Amino acid sequence: MLGKIFLHWYGTQPRICIPDAELAKVILSNNFGFYAKDKPRPSIITMLGGRGLGLVAGLEWVKRRRILSPAFSMDKLKIMISRMAECTISMLDEWKRQAIEAEENSKTIDINKEFQELTADIIAHTAFGSSFVQGKEVFKAQRELQQLCIASAVNIFIPGSQYLPTKSNIKIWKLDWKMKGKLQHIVESRLNSQTRSGSSDCSFGDDLLGVMMDTWKTDSDDKLKMNEIMDECKTFFFAGHETTSTLLTWTIYLLSLHIEWQDKLRQEVLENCGMAIPDADMLSKLKMVNMVLLEALRLYSPLIELLRVALGDMKLGNLLIPKGTCLSIPIAMIHRSKEYWGEDANKFNPLRFINGVGKAAKHPNALLAFSMGPRNCIGQNFAMLEAKTVMTLILQRFSWSLSPDYKHAPANHLTLQPQHGLPVIVKPLQF
């Protein structure tokens, strides 16, 4: 075990890297808060929301998770499928139009860009009740903030420098002001719509925003302030579309390389869904689609590492971890470890998931795409349901192949992105 663990440096910060699935389980499954999430840079906090679920800790996190969990129940997620499908079909209709007008009835499309806009549209509709047009300034500002975060990641951070009126900081402040303004407008629009209805008893809605705003009707400690709601909106605007778009992008990439699997999935979709818009029952029958999505998460996990900080002197396996030590759990290394996944660990093999996630590898917790333990991703069911819906609709309507212009260069831009985009040649199956 000790031979696996090593010290590495991120800028000037030392980290202990732990590419061990069992130790990762111990760290992530701890229910007593001994291993806290590492505090990100101020620019990332601004982008994600400092008081959002992803960054709060302790009793505040327990309260927030309790408030938000009902918005992600399977009953509510099933209702969202039709909205996911509506957004997706709108995108696919535009693909078809462009393909028919092009030579050979095919069109080269940057799938990564398309999926970023699609999943942003879906999260806006399903979680916040607004269209992509209304929320596009939020996404645009977050995208610009993301680029600033990426550019500054290799620089040494000096505590307090975020308050200096530098060119970069002024831009961050302006983008944050723009995001807050747009988000406050969305919240106030929902509030005004209920006020016009004349009823004080009805709910603000059964989506994520409605669940948060419903806390205003209680006198308990669960009531969320406006700035807390806006920070949660920031968190889910980003996490709700960024990770799913990444999953869809790499799934399309892998199926471009393995056409035989593209054909298998299409046959499964047509047998169980035909050309109908899928519902929850249909999606539950798509076993091979699910296996391919899991394999895409394994090979190209949106997050390539998880960071935790020991809040006290801890014993981890045979190691003594001093208080304040940063621990890095390298998801990408664990996901491609031959020790856990076999000699074909670097190869695309969805059949490894035929008996479920727990039996796919030699360790039941070797797949960490959604983390695990008490702080696992609250939106993982949403993400998988969305990915299945989108892939089903694409498989019904299109075949695709990788453009010769594609350059394989995965890059960590907070999530794992194709650095030069993903140009794919799409061709409608029906005209």
UniProtKB/TrEMBL annotation:
| Membrane topology term | Single-pass membrane protein
Q: Name one GO cellular component term.
A: membrane
> Sorted alphabetically, which PROSITE patterns does this protein's record hold?
CYTOCHROME_P450
- Say which domain of life the source belongs to: Eukaryota
Which species? Crotalaria pallida
| Localization (cell) | Membrane
**Coiled-coil intervals, chain numbering:** none
Xref: Gene3D superfamilies: Cytochrome P450
Give the record's family classification: Belongs to the cytochrome P450 family.
Q: Which GO terms describe its molecular function?
A: heme binding; iron ion binding; monooxygenase activity; oxidoreductase activity, acting on paired donors, with incorporation or reduction of molecular oxygen
Family matches, as Pfam families:
p450 (PF00067)
What cofactor is this protein dependent on? heme
Name assigned to this protein: Cytochrome P450
Which keywords are on file for this protein?
Answer: Heme, Iron, Membrane, Metal-binding, Monooxygenase, Oxidoreductase, Transmembrane, Transmembrane helix
Predominant location category = membrane
Question: What residues bind heme, as annotated?
Answer: 377
